[in-house]
Amino acid sequence: MSQKEKEILKVLQSDFPIIENPYQVLAKRLGISPKQLLLKIEKFKQNKTIRRIGAVASAAHLGYKSMLIAARVKPESVEKTAAFINSFENVTHNYLRKAEYNLWFTYSAKTSKQINSFIAKIKKLKGVEEVLVLPATQTFKIKAEFKF
Amino acid sequence: MNKLTELQKNILNFLQQDIPAKEHPYSEIALENNVDEKTIVSQIKLLKNIGYIRRFGAILAHHKVGLKANCMCVWIVPENKVKKIADRVKKIAQISHCYSRKTTKKWPYNFYTMIHGQTKKQCFEVIEFLAKTAKLNDYRVLFTEKQFKKTSPKYRV
After folding, report:
1. What pTM does this model have?
2. Which residues form the domain of A128?
3. For chain B, how are helix, strand and coil distributed in percent, rounded to 5?
4. Could you tell me which chain A residue has the CA closest to the CA of B152?
5. pLDDT (tens digit, 9 = 90+) per residue, A70-85?
6. Where are the alpha helices (DSSP H) in B6-79?
7. Which of B12, B80, B101, B103 best tests the A interface by mutation, with the highest count of A CBs <10 A?
8. Residue of B1, B55, B99 with shortest CB distance to A139
9. Are the C-beta atoms of B133 and B142 separated by less than 8 Å?
10. How large is the ipTM?
11. Residues B75 and B138 in one domain
12. Domain contains B133
């Protein structure tokens, strides 16, 4: 990645102006044309460096609760279990980690009832030996901006 | 929570997707809602000011910008030290998320930190720094072995 590309990503991540024509203004700041900037953005989206451009909404303001769940899954069942978990739109993160609890995922919904019904489904899966439900008691930091 | 107008709801649903990469990204949503782009922009600013929008801009894939080592480090922190250590964590740039969580008999860790580095070594440096300065000995490091899913949550409004 060139220095210029890094600069573009940093600006798009951290200084995106809320105005009618954000790309014109950003392009001017970066010393390139709006067309060049939009082409770069297309490229970054294609190679998945930029996941998307938009807003991150506050779950709490919109009445959503998020739950971290960990499962101890037999190694041979991991792929299948992960695919089933991923099929839920409300699942936003799902990772394989090296620990006795090897699958870690988050589920967000408006009601505890929805969350509990999801957990019940996971518990019933073949190959899932144990499930930990780990609600947050306090949120100290959520910062999705990366220093690079 | 229920005080949002129809327009604000439509804007929030729209902005949780990928906005169009064109010079006037709000022209369509403005048209759909029979308002001008200026109104859309002022509503976005308002939604940000009142906290419905936490962040606005490009959402990057951290592994694509050189942060290839990502781990969750969980700690046992005595209740009376949690706040102090959380304040310390807030200042550490490599830690993106920090929560306290309920524990279980089998999983006694109550303090969670998500750490990102270019290498595993960088992650360990952050962990060792925190362990040393906060005098914490009980912790587990869980590196991401595979990312099955990572999407921005879409909260339907």
Report:
1. 0.86
2. 65-135
3. 40, 25, 35
4. A92
5. 999 999 999 999 999 9
6. 6-15, 27-32, 37-49
7. B101
8. B99
9. no
10. 0.85
11. yes
12. yes
